[in-house]
Give the backbone structure.
Amino acid sequence: MPQDPPEVDRRLTELQSQINRLSLSLHLWQERQDRLLEQRLTDWSAVEARTQKDASTRMRELVRCLDQAVFIPAVYDHEPVNVFFFGTVTFKVVDGKPRLRIFANQEEAELKKESDFIGPQPFVGRGSKFEGLHYPNDTVTSELTGMVEMAMKIDATGKLLDLKVVSEYPPLVGFGRAAAEDFRVATFIPAFREGKPVECNITLPVYYEP
């Protein structure tokens, strides 16, 4: 049966009132969520700032200690040689205690496993034609800092078998060419795994400063 107009109006009024209350509740909920998000972002920013400050402090202390450290020399063919040492420093909190470790490689997979792996090290002299890094002054006309990633295959005697430039930044200004020329003539102290020389594939980052 058709409803009376007054009853229809009453029900429409109730429905509109419910809609208004729901809309207000949603608005208040959204405001609360916005405040919570803003607070979380503020807290995260504060934690991030403290983390960056702590990391900077640890880095300065590490550099200070390394500047004062005395290293056992690298040896090739029973003779000490000068090498370019590529390593990685990790800092973790384990069982509530800080732990700093230095690894003699920069391979992500090896670092994750904390493997007993020493990466190959290019050395100067003793038959190696490697003479260090040469900034590409012939092509870089302004003072730039460059970074090159090179993929290399090196056998168990330290001989370079393959070299490819994976990336360079800034691109197309000569850093990739310079890195390839610097390392193509190098001989390496080979990689060691668990104390034994091994063939390996590595990716080395090389940095150039004016």
